[in-house]
Each structure stands twice: as structure tokens, then as C-alpha cells.
Amino acid sequence: MNVTLFSKPDCKQCDFTKRGFDKHGIDYVTVDVTADDSGRQKCIDLGYSSMPVVLVESGQEIVHWSGFRMDEIKALAYLEGAPQ
After folding, report:
1. Could you give phi then psi for residue 73, rounded to 5 degrees?
2. pLDDT tens digits, residue range 33-50?
3. Are 73 and 62 in contact (CB under 8 A)?
4. DSSP secondary structure letter of residue 19
């Protein structure tokens, strides 16, 4: 399972999402959309204009959401068998 967090500096929801991932032991890669044009374009292509955007790729299944979503973070942790 690959988790990508698209974020930007000084974004409280981005920071909350990172803390949620860290708390639940979820491995993720962070992409700063202010410095990565392809990352910014990926978010636009997914239909988002605000950060954070989370992209989860597992096999052929792709899930994504925007904003701080503790419910989604907990569901992801459950799927990965991470501590709740």
C-alpha cells in the first residue's frame, strides 16, 4: 500500500493529517505542492484545489480524499493493522 500526502507549508490540516498518520504508524510520502509542479497537477487532476490531499494506492484500488479526515486515517490504520 502506498500513501502519498500532498501538502503545503503552514497548513494546519496538513499538519494534523501528518500527526494522525504518525500516531497510527502509517507510512507515507509527503509531496509539497508549492515546490512540485507534477504533485500540484496530480491534485488538480483528482479534482482538488485545497490541501491536504491524500492518495492511497493498493494494487489496482485507488482511494483519495481532501482535508483532515481522522475517520479515513483510522480506517487506513485498521486496513494496515496499525495500532488504533
Report:
1. -65, -45
2. 999 999 999 999 999 999
3. no
4. H
